[in-house]
Amino acid sequence: MDFSQYYDQAxxxxxxxxxxxxxxxxxxxxxxxxxxxxxxxxxQLSGRSxxxxxxxxxxxxxxxxxxEYVEASLxxxxxxxxxxxxxxxxxASMQLNSKKPSEYLFLMSNGLLFPFYDQGKMFYVVPxxxxxxxxxxxxxxxxxxxxxxxxxxxYCLAAVNLYGYVEIKRLFExxxxxxxxxxxxxxxxxxxxxxxxxxxxxxxxxxxxxxDYFGHFDDLKxxxxxxxxxxxxxxxxxxxxxxxxxxxxxxxxxxNKLKDFIMKxxxxxxxxxxxxxxDIQLACSMEEPLQSIIYEFERRNIIFDDVEQVKRLIPLIxxxxxxxxxxxxxxxxxxxLGLSKQLATxxxxxxxxxxxxxxxxxxxxxxxxxxxxxxxxxxx
Length: 380
Description:
By secondary structure, the protein is an alpha+beta fold.
């Protein structure tokens, strides 16, 4: 799905309109007080609520050009954000088209980068003063720190995607086991806390790292009870870190068999079937009822020929479920734990009415450009 037109509109809305400016001392006074206040809030600038626009711009500049602030902000950047910042170093500006907003919004909101829209083109600027502040940061120490902090973050992301929640002590032990890093447990916790300075897909409470799927700690109780006596599925480092990507899942033989059946009997649209299988896997991983999975067919205007066709389909979906890694099994599949089961078909209704095809899957990137999954953003 091509979101480039939407990205262009969002980029234009985020941009400063008019002549491209290169110095922070020129850029900040050109911003509205509302935008200055937003950056000041992210910088935790004290007394900002009592400042007028001129005072805010002046004090904010003092904060932004502090090498320690620049370093801390850049340690928090993700891979795409950091690569964009690197590309802009040593340049007055760069003209880029159809940039995904999520690649620069963090940098922009922290005052390290500013987008401009001038004569129908988008330009991105890391102000001269910010570049000067970065040049005062010790490069080797910074890159080592950023790499180390990023490694811990990847373990956090992989853990919450694979397990839903995990004891921080257990995650630390896994990290030490799989990495040659003389990291202490308290330092490990400190790095996690540092990453929570910006929105993440996890949070910490009572010694646990918890997926933001759970709104409150009490929501965990059912999962904890179901998982209490089960061992963790702990693959090798390379496999484990694949789960840091929230879109990753194993393409099992069962999923391939289901996809082949759908392509042969229900739809020749390969792209639509890819989205469908993607959402079926997600539904199975969240242990949704069979009716929810059938709905994924209906909302794409895939009509079953007869009940017999549905009866042939359900065992394939059941096999997919039994070979899907579940949070309630601490990452194991039901089959691995000898817990395979039949999906309940009571009350299952099949709709034959036409429905407009929708191709945005729930774990695709949200078209709003936030970088979040559709299911965790505009879908709700």
